[in-house]
């Protein structure tokens, strides 16, 4: 009976999926020397040099304190720097950080290919979009 409860529990199932996909992502991003979260943060900086920490938090769906911690770590690694303009902290990639762009993009592509090989490309894309939509719905009710 407990097994049925767990199968029907969104909390349990989402956490299980989170653990499985996190392991895959960590495996794929290992060659970059960064965790997937740091990789995704850098991808956002590559797309928009001078992005604000607030924008990063919105894009990555992270709390400001978490973004601050991630930024501080990447600054200490010499991959990004921030420049304060008024009340904004704007984030830029250093040359060392820019040198990782191709590697990080390849890590992301490898991760996507890995789960697509298991789920099917269309099914993986549909599941991803559905989970994103559901996350938005649940996040916006609070």
From TrEMBL:
Span of the signal peptide: none
One Pfam family linked to the record: MarR
Entry keyword Transport: no
PROSITE patterns registered for this protein in UniProt: HTH_MARR_2 (PS50995)
Domain of life: Bacteria
Transmembrane segments: none
Record keywords, A-Z: DNA-binding, Transcription, Transcription regulation
Occurrences of domain HTH marR-type (ranges): 7-136
Record PANTHER family: TRANSCRIPTIONAL REGULATOR, MARR (PTHR42756), TRANSCRIPTIONAL REPRESSOR OF EMRAB OPERON (PTHR42756:SF1)
Name this protein carries in UniProt: MarR family transcriptional regulator
Biological source species: Paenibacillus sepulcri
